[in-house]
Write a structure and sequence with these properties.
Layout (H helix, E strand, L loop, with lengths): L1 H144 L1
Length: 146
C-alpha cells in the first residue's frame, strides 16, 4: 500500500513538480533578461548623468565668464560715468564762473548807466539854466540896443 500511495503521489506530483521546475527555468530566463535590461538602463542612466555633469560644468563656466565680463563692463561703465561727471562738473563750474563774470560786468554797466542818467539829469538842469541865461542875455541886448 505504501508503494501504491507512493506511485499515486509520483504520478500526480512529479508532473506538477516538473512543470513547476520548467516554469522556474522560464522565470529565471525572464529574470536574467530583465536584469540585462535593467543593467543596460543603468548604463544609460550613468551616461546621462555624466552628460548632465558635463553640461552643468559648461553652464558654470559660461556663468563665471559672463559674471567676469559683466563685472569688467560694470567697472568700465562706472569709470566712464565718473569721468563724465567730473567733466560735466568742470564745465558747469566754468559756466558758473562765466555767468558770475557776466553778472559783474552787467552790474558795472548798470552802475555806469545810473551815473550817466544822473549826469544827463544834471546836464538837462544846466541846459535849462543856459537857456534861461541866453534868454536873459538876449532881452538885455534888446534893451541895450533899443
Amino acid at each position: 500500500m505504501k508503494d501504491a500511495i507512493r506511485e499515486v503521489i509520483k504520478e500526480l506530483l512529479i508532473p506538477e513538480l516538473n512543470e513547476i521546475k520548467a516554469s522556474g527555468h522560464r522565470l529565471e530566463g525572464r529574470v536574467d533578461e530583465i536584469s540585462s535590461r535593467i543593467g543596460d538602463t543603468n548604463l544609460q542612466l550613468v551616461e546621462l548623468g555624466r552628460r548632465i555633469d558635463e553640461t552643468n560644468n559648461r553652464i558654470d563656466a559660461v556663468r563665471e565668464e559672463l559674471t567676469a565680463r559683466m563685472d569688467t563692463m560694470n567697472a568700465d561703465l562706472t569709470a566712464r560715468m565718473d569721468t563724465m561727471n567730473a567733466d560735466l562738473t568742470a564745465r558747469m563750474d566754468a559756466q558758473t564762473a562765466r555767468i558770475d563774470s557776466q553778472t559783474a560786468r552787467i552790474d558795472v554797466l548798470s552802475e555806469q548807466v545810473s551815473e550817466l542818467r544822473m549826469d544827463f539829469a544834471e546836464f538837462k538842469g544846466r541846459e535849462k539854466l543856459i537857456e534861461d541865461l541866453t534868454t536873459r542875455v538876449n532881452r538885455l541886448e534888446s534893451k541895450v540896443s533899443a
